[in-house]
Specification:
The complex is a heterodimer of chains A (276) and B (284). Chain A has 276 residues and is mainly alpha-helical. Chain A is built from eleven helices and no strands. In chain A, α5 crosses α7. Chain B is elongated and about 90 Å long. In chain B, 77% of the residues lie in helices and 0% in strands. The longest helix of chain B has 35 residues. The chains are: A mainly alpha (276), B mainly alpha (284). Chains A and B meet through α1, α2, α5, α6 and α9 of A and α1, α5, α6, α9 and α10 of B. Chain B: Keywords: Cell membrane, Membrane, Transmembrane, Transmembrane helix, Transport.
Chain lengths: 276, 284
């Protein structure tokens, strides 16, 4: 029975998707992935109820929705602790520090050649591993998580800003010189705006990294609130509906910040070829 | 020389700053442990060789690294090599899974319009989701199903690292321009031949940068997957144990080992790229 329903849903859903994909235009371009998401949720629900999948393995979407509704105050407290207290300040400070460091390095080609390769090397390293050290230095509360986020976001920003500042062409620089523009004027009017696509790249990458850093740092010790804490303890207690609720919130927070940054990028770098 | 000298200078500076920071960071602890009437010189010296320093000195970390690598047989759980191998194995299996999934997804996305429209936005959205948040749950649930050890870690490592491979491959498989595809058509190449002789070779320069991003990610996934379950072996377990028992040296040594593994992983991808380059006459 369940198998039949699943097969039928899959067949109907698949043909609807194929039909949707044939059309162009913004509405259909948005409708296809949404329909796909709904189809996945539907199949998930049918399979869970139909086969009687135990809740400790995989809760059905409706149960997750119920968990979100009943645990709303808990989720809000975790969100405040992890996102507003650790992720946001850490992300802002880390990005600012990376940008300022890149500008400071800008004066010396020698330093740039020394630091930038090192920076890209460090970006490739498992920096989340510093979490236990930061917990030891800054305590269990949000300060240590913010510190992890600062370190994690610093290096991608440094590397990207370095590349962005170097991206202004010789012609444009010559033009600025012929306008008798000084170093800071060239920086403010030509090179920083020119570096914006690179900066936004780093900002978007860092928005995900920051969430990961804060959540993982909470695995190492935390007051009894926070998204990472909740996920690890409730998973151990097999309250998977709460875990999924928490994950949905993390996913929503990550996607929303990413989307906001993408919108901002579009508004600020409207001149870039990829948006024209 | 122009490349090595600046790097060496910056590294030396980092080392100096590190050394200089050791004394103030450990001062309180050293003073508390010092005998009454100890001179400040004695306390300063003591900061360099504490058992559980807040910030270990570079030579302490080096000593711990060498001691835990060379001091024990590789099979002993006291050996850092043992833990590194456990983590690296999970990362490699995860990386291979990610490679298979990423390439398969990319081939599907490029050839089936429905998949492109329905799946690609989700693949991109999955990038904005903190995937590591599901690590504890995956480990616990798979543990309930009787799957423990390497597989759950490899799954998380694979999930974390498939994205750069998929996007790189999609870009690469789409990179041949219409002229080249028309040429294939005038040769009356079948779609399969077009894929094997044009699209696949054209995608390689896009695959390797993706792999270079994915390899360290797989390592991060494997390490983090070891955190929530109290795993007995692996670099993540080592970090967690060090954090619980305040064994700072152990944490730092595990961290440096993880960094070495990340460099090794990227170097391995570089090597594969070089082999591919030489087999294709110096051009990717």
């Amino acid at each position: 029975m369940t198998v039949l329903l699943l097969a039928a849903s899959l067949a109907v859903g698949g043909s609807v998707l194929a039909w949707l994909a044939r059309f162009d235009g913004p509405v259909f371009r948005a409708a296809t992935p949404v329909a796909f998401g709904l189809l996945v949720l539907w199949l998930w629900q049918v399979a869970c109820t139909g086969f009687g999948v135990p809740r400790v393995l995989l809760p059905a979407p409706l149960e997750i929705g119920r968990a979100i509704a009943t645990h709303l105050p808990l989720l809000a407290a975790d969100f405040q602790q992890t996102f507003l207290r650790a992720v946001m300040p850490g992300w802002i400070v880390g990005n600012l520090a990376g940008l300022l460091a890149a500008i400071a390095l800008d004066g010396s080609a020698f330093l740039r050649r020394g630091v930038l390769p090192l920076g890209s090397l460090v970006s490739a390293m498992p920096i989340v591993g510093i979490a236990p050290i930061m917990v030891m230095w800054f305590g269990f509360d949000w300060q240590s998580k913010a510190a992890v986020v600062v370190v994690m976001t610093f290096f991608p920003m440094l590397v990207n800003a370095g590349a962005g500042l170097a991206s202004a062409g010789a012609m444009e620089r010559d033009l600025m010189r012929s306008y008798a523009a000084g170093y800071w004027q060239t920086l403010a009017k030509l090179r920083l705006p020119g570096a914006l696509p690179f900066l936004f790249n780093a900002l978007k990458l860092n928005s995900t990294l920051a969430l990961i850093g804060a959540i993982v740092a909470e695995f190492f010790g935390t007051p009894i609130v926070g998204m990472g804490f909740r996920i690890s303890t409730e998973a151990a207690r097999l309250n998977l509906d709460v875990v999924w609720a928490e994950i949905s919130m993390a996913a929503a927070a990550g996607t929303l910040s990413f989307a906001l940054l993408a919108l901002l990028e579009r508004a600020v770098t409207f001149w870039h070829p990829s948006f024209r | 020389m122009t490349r090595v000298l600046p790097l060496a200078c910056v590294l030396a500076c980092v080392l100096l700053i590190w050394m200089a920071a050791v004394v103030p960071m450990n001062w309180d602890q050293a003073q508390a442990l010092a005998d009454d009437g100890a001179q400040w010189q004695d306390v300063a010296w003591a900061t360099l060789s504490l058992d559980r320093p807040l910030l270990p000195a570079p030579h302490q970390v080096a000593g711990e690294l060498i001691g835990s690598i060379a001091g024990w047989p590789v099979t002993s759980p006291r050996s850092l090599v043992f833990h590194a191998v456990v983590t690296f194995a999970a990362a490699v299996v995860g990386f291979v899974l990610a490679l298979a999934l990423g390439v398969a997804l990319a081939v599907g996305i490029v050839h089936v319009r429905t998949l492109d429209r329905a799946l690609m936005p989700w693949v991109i959205a999955s990038q904005a989701v903190p995937v590591l948040a599901i690590a504890p749950m995956v480990v616990v649930v798979l543990g309930n199903l009787g799957l423990t050890g390497l597989l759950p870690k490899a799954l998380i490592a694979g999930w974390l690292s498939f994205f750069p491979i998929t996007t790189g491959m999609v870009k690469g498989l789409r990179s041949p321009d219409p002229m080249q595809r028309d040429l294939m058509r005038t040769y009356s190449a079948t779609p399969r031949q077009e894929f094997a002789k044009l699209r696949w070779p054209a995608s390689m320069p896009f695959l390797f940068p993706g792999l270079k991003v994915a390899a360290p990610l797989a390592l991060v996934g494997a390490i983090v997957a070891e955190l929530p379950t109290g795993a007995q072996a692996g670099l993540g377990a080592r970090l967690l144990a060090g954090s619980y028992y305040g064994q700072t040296l152990q944490i730092w040594a595990a961290l440096f080992m993880a960094a070495v593994l990340a460099v090794l992983a990227v170097a391995a991808v570089d090597l594969a790229q070089a082999v591919m380059l030489s087999r294709r006459g110096g051009r990717l």
